[in-house]
Specification:
7-stranded parallel β-sheet; binds zinc ion; 27 helices; alpha/beta; 37 strands; binds adenosine-5'-diphosphate; globular
């Protein structure tokens, strides 16, 4: 008898054994997908990981349904790595498999399919089965895979569906299709009749309107100085005029209107196209990295903001692809901008593939196949954390840029892996090297560099010897007291913005919305509307005139009377980006102000769109959350304002100070990236706070030492590893009892700190109560054994009937 061992794309810890024929046994290779029945009438795309002749002991092996691939989709290095992830991060191997594969590869009987909107279909080209499905979808908007089985009256439908997906006839329902319409910018130029100077003077004489003259003169001045196209919008601003005046000039045939696609007017284009010469400091850093990677597996490049790290990465990548190696370039999701991609594609042409979550299933499947087939098109993969799971077979180098970013750690759902750490493990199986880059490394990484585990290279100067920005602190307590505030703006900040604007420079304002969102409050009774499902106040969204829960999405129309006392004296409290944007509009009514946060960047390209417009100087002031801090490079930003440093500092999290330092330094780094020295204004209630002082003096070392000391005293990483257990249940008392039981078992069986069970600050989300337990594993204790003990406790917990319904999530190396 012949068997295949498979992983199911379900949250199951075990692998399963299925029966195959002898022919199938010889045909199947590890890493192929196999459709198998599981549970009641359900079908899944499982992954073959072994072939053997041992019948399972506990159950009778079912037969497989069909083989889905002709060649392996996943290689053995991946399977080994996924097993490591499951074991290290204490999750089911099925969770890893399910997350690793693009969902188009994971069709199951419950998967929902629908027709791709607005696509012309030539029905004569469809096979009979394809036509049946096509027709069915004319009558209903979506189908489940199991419905398809009924319609076609057969069981093996996965190949047909897959083919239709690849032909763009079907889409998986989770996908939302965005379309990028490149934005056109309007410009004017002088009609050729007037380009000669004499014609021009004559023209000015004939013009009667002073307003039109003013516009023309402004245009000449600009052309004489800048010699580049002038957008209509800027001309209006500069001449202090209106679009009507310009329209009149166009109608007279003096100006001609034309449009350009935004990305064609990239000011840096020429600079980027030539092959860049490394500065001396960059060259030294590159040499340092090269020699350090000869001895060590991992090297940390600490380079201040705007030191030109990307160019160094580029050189290093060149060396590896010359040796026919694959390169993976990992970035936090949000830093994956067209800006960076275009920089790299200019250098490497179409050897670069991009992989991230805003890509559609088809695009992801394409990249997967390219990597799997060693395609020229995917020698270099740039991607967010999930690109770690692509089928690399010959990795030479992994670059992890902005390695300190917490988004490299997946929070929910399992696997809760850290992409940086998992990448280092993956590199070992490929005998590949890892370069970590950051201006503000995480304490853990810097610690590893200090202890000699990682190599270390420091790049202290900005490219072109641009000075680091000057940082000025404004004590807002004092400013409020002296009435030197307008709304949330100190006079110092308003003056600095006014000055920068008068010089035609741009401004970035940073407002960390987390933990300090605007709420609605009743002035009569103090009632603040709460989410009915979660233990949080609802957040006020002015634009939609709604109150919304940021945890579950629950929303209500903005109330006109208090739901508690019916008073109509309601007010909004606190401030987020939206409020800052409004106050700015009042302070600078003629300026173009835009906001960048989760609410304004939902679409596939809306983030890029905002960045492009800002880069093209169409936007004067950009207000945003931490999104603004991620590796963006603008050459005309002279001023950065941090609206309130304190709400970052006082998050209840042992990393709050480290993060505040990183955030403020990264945001500050957006100022003055060209010749002129930039300025940063930090508004704070605590100008003497150590972290604020460290940011002001660019004192990473000071921040690190202080944090390291605290980590040791209070038993945190890098001295202790954290395993956090989160328990959830709808019944408050049952949860309380159950978490106490688990805590006591852990406490008794582990010779290390076990804390809890704690009620988190937000103790109910989506109607489930929450308790947490934290285990702190000292450096010198075996992690493996500790996890085994934890697992044992969890197993006993699971068999207690009254606790069975309590769900537990494990987070190893909690971030
Ligand atoms: P970092 O990632 O370290 O913050 P960047 O890689 O964004 O810095 O570089 C900052 C700026 O300097 C960019 O505008 C980049 O184009 C420019 N730059 C970096 N290295 C060079 C070089 N060797 N020649 C010309 N320009 C460079
Ligand atoms: Zn009230
Ligand atoms: Zn809620």
């Amino acid at each position: 008898m012949y068997f295949v061992e498979v992983i199911l794309p379900l949250s199951l810890d075990k692998t399963f054994t299925y029966r195959v024929s002898e022919t199938e046994y010889h045909y199947i290779k590890k890493g192929m997908r196999i459709a198998v029945p599981f549970g009641k009438n359900k079908m899944y795309a499982a992954l073959a990981i072994d072939l053997h002749q041992n019948a399972p002991v506990l159950y009778e092996a079912k037969e497989i349904h069909e083989i889905l691939d002709v060649a392996p989709l996943v290689n053995e290095i991946q399977i080994a790595h996924w097993k490591w992830i499951a074991s290290y991060y204490m999750c089911a191997i099925g969770d890893v498999y399910r997350m690793a594969l693009p969902s188009a590869f994971l069709l199951e009987s419950e998967t929902i399919l629908s027709q791709k909107p607005q696509i012309f279909v030539d029905v004569t080209q469809l096979s009979d089965d394809e036509f049946l499905l096509y027709e069915a979808l004319q009558h209903q908007s979506s189908l489940k895979v199991k419905d398809v089985m009924g319609i076609l009256n057969k069981k093996n439908v996965f190949p047909i569906i897959q083919k239709m997906i690849s032909k763009d006839l079907l889409v998986l329902n989770e996908e939302i299709q965005y379309e990028y319409k490149p934005k056109l910018v309007k410009y004017v130029r002088l009609h050729e009749d007037y380009v000669a100077e004499s014609a021009l003077i004559a023209l000015l004489d004939t013009l009667k309107g002073a307003k039109q003259k003013e516009v023309l003169l402004t245009y000449f001045q600009w052309q004489a100085q800048e010699k580049k196209p002038l957008p209509v919008k800027e001309l209006v601003d500069k001449a202090n005029s209106t679009t009507a005046v310009i329209k009149a000039l166009v109608e007279k045939g003096i100006f001609e209107e034309y449009s350009l696609q935004e990305d064609r007017v990239n000011f840096d284009k020429n600079k980027e196209e030539q092959n860049l010469q490394l500065s001396e400091a960059q060259q030294t850093a590159l040499d340092g990295i090269t020699s350090s990677l000869e001895e060590k597996e991992v090297c940390l490049l600490q380079g201040v903001t705007s030191s030109g790290k990307t160019e160094i990465y580029t050189r290093l990548i060149e060396q590896y692809i010359k040796e026919e190696k694959q390169v993976l370039y990992l970035l936090p999701e949000i830093a994956l901008t067209t800006q960076l991609v275009s920089r790299l594609t200019k250098h490497f042409g179409n050897q670069v593939a991009v992989f991230h979550s805003k890509y559609s299933n088809n695009e992801r499947v394409e990249v997967w196949n390219q990597v799997n087939q060693h395609s020229e098109k995917a020698k270099i993969v740039i991607g967010a954390r999930s690109s770690l799971f692509l089928p690399f077979s010959n990795l030479g180098l992994i670059i992890i840029d902005e390695e300190h970013e917490q988004t490299f750690k997946q929070q929910d759902p399992a696997p809760r892996y850290h992409a940086r750490d998992a990448a280092i493990v993956l590199a070992q199986s490929h005998k590949a090297k890892v370069l970590l880059g950051s201006a503000t490394p995480s304490v853990e990484t810097y610690y590893n560099a200090q202890s000699g585990k990682y190599g270390y290279v420091n790049l202290k100067e900005r490219f072109g010897k641009v000075q680091m920005p000057e940082i000025e602190l404004v004590d807002i307590k004092d400013s409020y007291f002296r009435k030197r505030m307008t709304g949330h703006f100190s006079n110092v900040l308003v003056d600095a913005i006014t000055e920068a604007l008068s010089l035609g420079e741009q401004i970035i304002l940073f407002q960390n919305r987390r933990g300090f969102s605007p709420v609605m409050e009743c002035l009569t009774c103090g009632h603040v509307p709460q989410c009915p499902n979660c233990d949080v106040s609802l957040t006020y969204h002015k634009f939609k005139n709604q109150l919304r829960c940021h945890y579950c999405g629950h929303s209500i129309a903005k109330p006109t009377i208090c739901h508690s006392c019916t008073s109509s004296h309601l007010t909004t409290k606190g401030f987020g980006t939206e409020q800052i944007e409004l106050e700015l509009a009042e302070l600078f009514p003629t300026k173009n102000i835009k906001r960048m946060d989760q609410d304004t960047t939902r679409g596939k390209y809306s983030f890029e769109n905002l960045i492009d417009r800002f880069k093209n100087r169409e936007i004067d002031i950009l207000v945003g959350t931490q999104m603004l801090a991620k590796g963006l490079d603008f050459d005309n930003v002279s001023l950065v304002g941090i609206m309130n440093a304190d709400n970052m500092l006082y998050q209840p999290d042992f990393r709050a100070f480290e993060r505040s330092y990183q955030m403020m330094t990264q945001v500050s780094g957006r100022a003055g990236r060209s010749e002129k020295r930039g300025k940063v204004i930090i508004q704070t209630y605590n100008p003497n706070h150590n972290v604020i002082q460290q940011v002001t003096h660019n004192d990473y070392e000071g921040m690190y030492k202080e944090q390291l000391y605290e980590r040791q005293i209070y038993k945190y990483p890098p001295y202790f590893r954290l395993v956090k257990l989160t328990l959830k249940h709808r019944d408050f008392d049952k949860l309380k009892e159950g978490s106490m039981w688990l805590y006591q078992v852990l406490q008794q069986s582990l010779a290390m700190p076990v804390l809890g069970p704690e009620e988190p600050a937000i103790n109910r989300i989506r109607n489930e109560y929450i308790r947490t337990i934290m285990v702190k594993i000292p450096q010198n204790v075996s992690i493996g054994n500790t996890k085994k003990t934890i697992q044992k406790a969890l197993n006993s917990f699971d068999v207690i009937p009254q606790y069975k319904a309590i769900r537990i999530a494990l987070n190893v190396d909690f971030y």
